[in-house]
Amino acid sequence: MNTLTDRDHLVITGSKDATCYGYCAACNKVHSLSAGNSRRYALELMAELEKNRRIDFINPDPEPIFSTDCLWKDRGGQMFGVLEGIDKNGNIVLLRAFSGQFNTCWQVEGWVPPTFDLEGYNQLLPNIDSSIQQLTGEIEHCQQIASQCQIRFEEAMGSGSLKAQKDCRRQMKEALKALALAKKKRRSYSRSRMTAFHDLYQLHNFRGEQRSIREVFNENRGIPTGSGDCCAPKLLQAAARMKLTPVGLSEFYFGKENKSFTRHHKKFYPCCTNKCQPILGYMLCGL
Ligand SMILES: [Zn+2]
Ligand SMILES: [Zn+2]
Description:
The protein folds into two domains: 4-116 and 203-284, no CATH class; 122-198. The chain contains seven helices and seven strands. The protein has helices at 4-14, 38-52, 118-159, 162-198, 213-216, 231-241, 277-284, and strands at residues 18-24, 29-34, 78-86, 92-98, 202-204, 210-212, 245-254. The strands form three sheets. A three-stranded antiparallel sheet has the order 4-3-7, sandwiched between helices. The protein has a two-stranded antiparallel ribbon with strand order 1-2. A two-stranded antiparallel sheet has the order 5-6. Helix 3 (118-159) runs antiparallel to helix 4 and helix 6 (231-241) runs parallel beside helix 7 (277-284). The radius of gyration is 26 Å and the shape is elongated. The two termini are 24 Å apart. One zinc ion binds at residues 24, 26-27, 31, 285.
């Protein structure tokens, strides 16, 4: 088994010139993809974004929600990506992606869809929200009972009645037990829903495999929020599903710089360390 140092070394040496890379546990090596010609297509996309100031440019009737004005507001800009792929007849196919949602939309015509199952997500989310609300209500109810018991117990202490004190102590014990149980119920529900949510991310690779992000994420820490939503995994997922062979991938930032000043307008960046690298080794496997 590799130590983390061996793996880090593999990642550092295997990622030279790569825009997109990650360690693949199945092959015990780093798979990577470089920019290739995609950089040129990415520059074209930047020019289109600047000229049209919206992302629904294939639509003759612009919708205000798809205007790029939101990329210059407080929230800051966004990452965009381009993949150059070859189809089975040898034709070049270009795919475009925006990271995460664009102005609250997961899906926009002309752009690759999210990596996860959007229909499943739309069904899962409202149920989770209402169940969590109900479980939180139960916790609040138990908290109220526990504090009422506390007041009654203090009164009983003042009255000097031993029987009343004993009764109150018993009631309080029961109330605290019910509170702990309600909290445990909400915790285990959240955990199970998180698993269901992660299973909506069925990641494809170029060996024709398909696996949940839970099985793919190859670092011993929780899967960060937004893992699978960056441009690189979105583009690779779409390419694998369309049976394209990716030959280049580029990601750039567009809009107001982010709060930590690590992302700047029209600059290119390699795949991110936290959310992408732990899944990209698997996703690039088979290329
Ligand atoms: Zn990323
Ligand atoms: Zn592999």
